[in-house]
Amino acid sequence: MIEKYRTAVQDMTRLNRLFAILSDPASLDVVVDRVVIALSEMFAADVVALLTPDGHGDFTTVGAIGLPEELRGRPFSGCDTCCAAAAIRSRAPILVADAMRDPGMDPILTGLEIQTAAWLPVLGAREILGVLVVGRGQPLPFSLSDTDLIMTMTQRVGLVLESARADEERVRLEFRLRQAEKAESLGRMAGAIAHQLNNKLTGVMGSLELALNEVAAGGDPRVEISHAQVAARQASRIGQQMLAYLGHGSRGRQDLDIVALCRDAIQEVELSLRAEILLRTVFPHRPLIVRGSSADIHQLLTNLATNAVEAIVREGEIVVAVREMPANEIVRSSLLHCDWIPGSRTYACLEVSDTGWGMDAEVLKNAFDPFFTTKFTGRGLGLPVVHGVVRAHDGALEVNSSPGVGTTVRVFLPLVEEQATA
Amino acid sequence: MSDTTPPRVRVGTGMSGDRDAREAGRVAASVAVEALAGEAPALVVVFATPRYNLPELLAGVRSVTGEALLVGSTGSGEIVCGKYLGFGGGVGVLAMTAGPYRFAAASAAGIADDSESLDRAGRELTRAARERAGSSRHAAALLITDSLLGDLQQFVQGVYRITGPRVVIVGGAAGDEQRFVQSSVFHDDAILDKGALVLWIASDQPLHVATRHGWQTTGAPLLVTAAVGTEIAELGGRRADEVYEAQLNLADKLTPDTFWGTSILHPFGLTQPDGRHVIRVARTKTPTGGLKIQGCVPSVGSAVQVMSGSADSLLDVTEEVIAEALHDRPDASVLLTFSCAARAMIFGERAPEEARRLQAAAGEIPTFGFYCCAEFARTAGVLGTHNATLTAVAL
User: Fold this and answer.
1) Which one, of B166, B87, B72, B157, lies nearest residue B122 by Cα?
2) What is the CATH number assigned to the segment(s) A254-420?
3) What is the interface size between A and B, counted as CB pairs within 8 Å?
4) How many angstroms away from the CA of A128 is the closest CA of chain B?
5) How confident is the model at residue B221 (pLDDT cuts 50, 70, 90)?
6) Chain B contact set for A42 (CB, 8 A)
7) Rounded to 5 degrees, what are φ and ψ at B169?
């Protein structure tokens, strides 16, 4: 009676352990590795290997423990008489009590002096996914109850494997879709750069031609040359903004008080503000020091403020706030790049919000693509430049927007460590 | 007619209790090397008390053994041909010629104590040591690690990923005479902190590891339902310390200060399919009711049983271990032995008895080893880390 109780407890604990592993949201490789290690521990199995058909009649190892490194790439035989094929054919476990004499045993395992083995088909809901082989170097055969237990575990492994493969396929398709979208975005960007530069260079060339005509006629070409100069500067500005977008624009980094920078930038914005727009600022009383390029950060602030102003058609309110924020309070899932990893303990959070027209999901998705614009006069480089500057400063960006409600942009820039630890 | 007799292994052992580290190392090494009858050692193994100035100690040894490969560690008492040196006892040195073996070692210091780093270190060091030794029909990986590296089974797991089952895995974790503050691993002139070493022994003959503990089960099996790091947090869904103490009828009687005195006598046994138990000793209990395990925590879902034993039951496995280690190797030249520091503490005044019985059982074959803070001996499956256990390998 006690023995039965002990066996029941042991089986239950083994199942619990395996199910705990299988329910862990880790990658498939990690889960398979943990499963084979757990099975090796639980059943004192010297070799545990999960095999899947390799498409050429043999089996390849998906995960294993106990297979020496030099054997990991070797295929297991899939011939008709081998145990792996028999387990798949019968959809039932194949138990081998005397492995060294059994002709169905794979030479990889006999070479490792495996004495007893169990080959179990890994069944998914729709198909047979492979075979799990569990082998012992000791002449201790797997009992029927052990085999039942491993088969139960293997079935669960099969379902998880099938589900993980479906997930992997979905992720693969999503990745391809994203790549296609990126390619489309790059194409749009390249076309737009060419178009914008072409416009400006046409202006330069036209003005120079007029200047030459003017010289030929004995006139003064300075007005035309000045026009050419302006157009050339605009072309150069597009180049600089593209560099900023790519995060290559930062030069001359120094410790900067972002609060003071904001005050300066806002003063400039206020000068050109329409009377219908109310501008409020919420700044801390102490400086917040970040390391960066003052020109780039000034550009970032100006772009955000300009976007906010332009988003308000008639009357509305803009709030510019700066505050200190611990890294663990930044909601990573809301960021433009949710795989961002904080590099500092504390960040300066610069928030610009407006009560303008806002953006729908489709517009928001493209808002950071260079040259994407919904504004008649815009070049579409405002938010991409903001994004580039944030990336170049190891920061993060969060944008929330609703049509008719407004937009809030939060920029997180790392505070210099001396200040963060103070 | 060619001579097919394998080259003979010459073995010498020496020890010293000299307070001067350099002199102790020099004297022990001189005695060991003298027994090699003029041949140069291919391998030097050094186990010593952590109380020595360790750079000086190794300098003393190397002044005699020269550039010969040196491996070893600090421990909690040394075993030298039937002698037990005890805490603060001194240094034991083994010097041996290669004979039919080839030795090569790889080591690393500053290993992080997370599972991934330990697994990776196990793989990388094994790969490097094997590559240096070259291929052979049979082999053993002798592991010496810092005992304070965390879950040492993760290191063994990494080693096993490379070796597979045909390579013997054996060894012990360095100690510091049960202070659990700092233990050191030796490799040539280097003293490694947070370190680990793999000595690859390439052999033409099969090698075999023998291991026994002498503990018996007591009470019902328990289910590990939560484990964090090297700590069992819950047993059967309840605080681990409460369940453990209830099994021993000591509810509310063990304080963090008195816990070790009891837990050393009642380790956990991790139930194996063949009925054996792999031993895990809880070293301390935490304020939140967790039980901190030395070296390797049982995984969540494992069945464990509280064990009991006595000095006699633990000592009685000595002859079995030697007999098993020598079963296929009656011609062995040396027996490397790894016993647990916890066993020595349980033996108390009888501690020298284990070393004496080991040598008596081994007969003319010299025995050499140390008292560790975890013993490595893989016999079935991936599990190869033990506590409160005696293990040996014959070379």
Assistant:
1) B157
2) 3.30.565.10
3) 92
4) 27
5) confident
6) 273
7) -115, 125
